[in-house]
Structure formats: C-alpha cells, structure tokens
Design a protein that fits this description.
elongated; UvrABC system protein C; alpha+beta; five-stranded mixed beta sheet; 19 strands; cytoplasm; UVR_dom; 597 residues; eight-stranded mixed beta sheet; 19% strand
Length: 597
Amino acid sequence: MDVPALEIQLKTLPNAPGVYQYFDKEGTIIYVGKAKNLKKRVSSYFTKTHDSGKTRVLVKKIANIKHIVVETETDALLLENNLIKKHKPRYNVLLKDDKSYPWICVKNERFPRVFSTRRVFKNGGDYFGPYTSVKTVHTLLDLIRGLFSLRTCNYDLHEEKIRSGKYKVCLEYHLGNCKGACEGLESEKHYNENIKAIKQILKGNFKDSLSKFKEQMMELAENMQFEEAQKIKEKVEVLENYQAKSTIVNPKISNVDVFSVISDESYGYINFLQLSYGSIIRSHTLEIKKKLDETDKELLELAITEIRQRFHSKSKEIYVPFPVDIGEDIKVTVPQLGDKKHILDLSIRNAKYFRMERFKQIKIVDPDRHANRVMAQMKADLRLHEEPRHIECFDNSNIQGTNPVAACVVFKNGKPSKKDYRHFNIKTVEGPDDFASMEEVVYRRYKRLLDEEQPLPQLIIIDGGKGQLSSALKSLDALNLRGKIAIIGIAKRLEELFYPNDPIPLYLDKKSETLKIIQQLRNEAHRFGIEHHRNRRSKSALNTELETINGVGEKTVVELLKHFKSAKRVANAKLDELEDVVGASRAEKIYNYYHNN
C-alpha cells in the first residue's frame, strides 16, 4: 500500500527552527512560513480544524513541502522575508508589500552620515543588519547620536566647497548635535575616528564606547543632572544587552554560493545555499546515486556544475568543505573560521537533515532499499566478509546465582524476528558462572541448528567482553564452526566491540546505525532473558509455597500442578475441586491455608 507523499514528509520533518515552503501540483510556491519547530508547525496545518477559509483552501492545494533549517528564530524570520520577496507566494499576504527589514548604513562619503535604510546598494557604504526590530535600529541610532556629534545634512562636503565657504552651519550645530564640519569647524580625522568607533558598536564591540558613555553618565550625576543621567543609564543597559549580529551571516558576504556534501555507501547528498548581502535567498539539496564508488570530491564537482547551470548562478566565489576543481573563473574558498565557516556549517547541517529524512522516507515506502543500505553499512563498519542478514545475540541472566537462564534473540535484515527467539535454562553449570553458561548455550544452540540442518547466522553477538567471547569461541571450535560464522563481543561500559584474537577493541561512532542495531540486539536479548528469569523465579517461589503447607508432600504438589497447571490456580481453586484431586483431608488444609491467609 502506497503511503501519501505529504504524510511521509510530515513524519520526517526535523524538530528544529527553519523556514518551510508549500508547493502546489504545478510546482509553484504558494506559501512560505517560519517556525521554532518545523515538525510541530507544519503538522498543525494538517491536524487542526481551521476557522479561516483561506487556510483551508491553502491546505487543500499543498502538493509538496520543502524546508530550510536555520540556527535561530531570528534567522528564520529574515530568511522567510527574503523568500517571500523573491517568490511572492499567493497566500503570503502580510509580507507581499515592498516593506523589508531595516539596515544601518554608514555612507561612503566624506564626513559619512549614519542612518537607517531599507535599501542596500553595492557601493553605498557599509551596511549593518538587517535588524528585525525598527525599535532596535532607533535605539542604536539614538545611542550613537548621544555619544557622537554627527552631521545629518546631505551636503556634498568636498574640501574645496568647504574652503570656499559654500555652506553655513544649521540649527543642529547651535543645538550641539553637530560640530560644524560644513564650515571646517571639525577636522576630517576627528570625524573619522568617531565613525570608526561607531562601526565597532555596530559590529558588537561596545567596550570603548561604553566607557565614554559611563563617564558622561557619571559627569551628569556629579552635576546633579539626575534625569539626564538616568536616560543615559537606560541606554547603556540596552546597549549592553544588545546582540549586534541579527543577520544570518556577515552582510559583507554577498553573491556567494555555498556547497557541502554528505554521503554513505550508495548515495551522495549535496546542499546548495545562495547568499546575497548576508542572507540566504535559495537552498537546494541534490541526491546523487553512486555508480562506481565515487569520492565526495567527484560527487561535489559534478553537483556544483549541475546546480549552477540549473539555477543560472553567476557567483564568482564558492565556499566548500575541501578544495575542488571547477575551472579558473570561480574562486574556491575553504573556510576555517568566522562567518564563512558558520555558513558552511549551516549548509552541512541542511545536507545531514535531508539525508536523515530520506532514510526515514525510504524506510516507509521502500523497506527493501533501507535494509540493503543498512546491511551494506554494517558489513563495512564491522569488517565482515558478507552482509549480516541473519544476526543472533546471546545474554546470560541470573540474580544472586538463582535460576540461571540465557536468551538468544534473532534479527533478520536489521529487524527483530521474534518467532526465532529462544530461552535456555542452564543445565550443566552450578552457580553463577557466566563464562561456562555462555559456552553451554552457544553449543546447544548451534548443535541443534546443525542437527536440524537449519540456516546459520552470518554474525553472532555476545553480550560481554573478552571472557564471554572466549567461552563462546570454545563452543564454535567444538562444533567446527570457527571462521564460518563471524562473532563479536560488546562490552557495556564503553560500547567496545571485541574480535577473536584481537586485543584492541573497535569503537564505532555513537550515532552510527550499525552501533544502534547492535545496541538494540543487546538490549532486546537482555529484556528477553530477564523476562524468562523472572517467570522462573516466580514459578519456583509458588511451587515452594505449596510444599510449605502442613500435610502436603512432593507427590501431592505434583498431582496438583498436573491437574491445575499452575500454583496460582491451586490457590484460587474451590474446595470441592481440590477434593476431587487430593481427597477431603488434604484439600481442606490447602483451602484453609490460602483463604485464611
């Protein structure tokens, strides 16, 4: 039975902040939204009853969902705005106008002006932002103007025009808000020192400016100007708590393509991010099936050419995780730290999320492909000669040396095969001897499989370290199976994998699927063994209780259990039912024992 594509996408969305895009059946973007948690937010569209008729129509038209993972909610907000401006989706009414997020511009001119703007020009100066709050921009500009005297006029302050006396100071000069650069009353050097300090504030370096601000506050306080001092104190607190980097990356990073690659045994996943003025304007992940065990470098070079042609990219620089050869016209940068490394890491995260989602989707719609991939991965990770399609795991269970048992669980194609699970009551070992118990159950298990001509596993996992593994090997030697079946031991403490005749354990990545399957086998064997052990102890305790009843001997207990099948049923039996089995005298003693108690 086919699972609807949307249902699969909803099940595999990440619990991370990001932006989601809805497409109709023609492949047109019809809605872009942001979310703290992509999975919860997108799922809510399909699980809630919507009062808005527009929302109900939107949900009906959704044929495909795409998303971009980002670091924070602020990043999601900015990215959502960029995508809405670019694609103008039909159902995004709120952000369809020409409004965009504000920047602070330090103008590229003599005696630069500092002002807010919603338009970014390539050579217009240095831009800081974008900021998600206009209030933040105004607060920063107020702080800057309170610290530094800057001009607000739009005069062309060339040196010759100032020298010729073309301009006269305005009211701002008389109010103390400007030093009169238009009449040459302030040197360009002094003005530029202030501009340098302002840029440091906008980049997040407030140390020097805060010191000057606090000095000004103390001076006002000493002069008994407490109201003015309090106003400056409030601005200092806002400035100290403010985080300057409200953009996804540095706004100076513009017209750049970012590529990253994640791969496994069969597929490569290449993520592409396109940046413009510090913001992501496009994200795309390409899945490539390997044919000849291509390297990540080969996959990335192939994908870069394909993606740039598909999206008509004209960027002259790309960021990649390692050097690639894609021609002389494109500058290749391998970031090591800072904002460039930050955006490359974000691309890698998107590739990883895409890969995880594909695995989950494949597991639902194509379980055979999922099993083939996992088996190939386990073969490579565990250095096996063949894929471990049939795995068996053994675990011993005994508490304070009583009722020792063992369990064998079976996985086929990476999934539990519960009909093949087996319990073992230890027969030949006295006391709590894990090594001898392991030797006994492994021998019994594979002696029986050989006698019945049943298929043997490709991999045996022993829950324990070198001791238990050595004991299991003795049984394989006795059955002449050494070398015919791969066998490893897993130690609980550090999840070490031990191999026969190899003193150095193997450590797998804690997040690897191979280790997760081995842990699942070990945990399942432990659960299955403990369950059997508890049943035996419980049965033993009940049987012992029957024997403690005065006048009831071993033969009577056997007769009762043969008839009633369990001690619990004996305890719940009626007097006449007991009389039919053991006679009136003993029946009365048994009945009175349980019912009086």
